[in-house]
Design a protein that fits this description.
The chain contains six helices and no strands. By secondary structure, it is mostly helical. 13% of the residues are buried.
Length: 159
């Protein structure tokens, strides 16, 4: 039982296997290494939370092949990335650059936290300033006639 538990822990700790197929790999180890590094920085537009190097999606495979074709054609790493970005936009980058177009994405979480804090403090500030409601005035005492009527009604219920 202990050996099974250890085997399961080893399997769970193993890094995920890359999705690169042997047919996609370049024969030149240096070019293949460059392709793998580029692929690790490009997002699979289908999976969205994986690099194309880790994704099994068909589009990710097509992008891996495209990266290898561009490298084989003599493009530099930057030219390959620029080519893919020109076709798919900054979204294809796992670490998109800070630009005016992406500023909202980068600053969005901080803005939401700031707005939440402002709303929180404004709410409690108003609560402190709100005038307290006047205490309910005590009802006037019963007249003698009202007291006799009440006693007669209560006396009838007791019987």
């Amino acid at each position: 039982m202990r050996a099974l538990l250890i085997a399961l822990m080893v399997l769970m700790a193993a890094p995920p296997a890359a999705a690169v197929n042997p047919q996609e790999m370049l024969s030149d180890p240096l070019l293949e290494l460059r392709a793998r590094e580029i692929s690790k920085g490009l997002r699979c537009v289908v999976c969205q939370n994986q690099s194309i190097d880790d994704s099994d999606a068909t589009l990710a495979r097509d992008l891996r092949v495209l990266v290898r074709e561009r490298l084989s054609a003599g493009d530099s790493d930057t030219e390959v990335v620029d080519y893919v970005v020109s076709r798919y936009g900054d979204f294809v980058l796992l670490k998109p650059p800070f630009k005016l177009a992406t500023a909202v994405l980068w600053a969005g979480p901080a803005l939401f936290v700031l707005l939440a804090l402002l709303a929180y403090f404004a709410f409690f500030r108003r609560q402190r300033r709100a005038p307290e409601a006047p205490a309910a005035a005590a009802p006037p005492p019963l007249s003698d006639d009202e007291r006799r009527k009440l006693d007669s009604l209560l006396g009838e219920k007791d019987q």
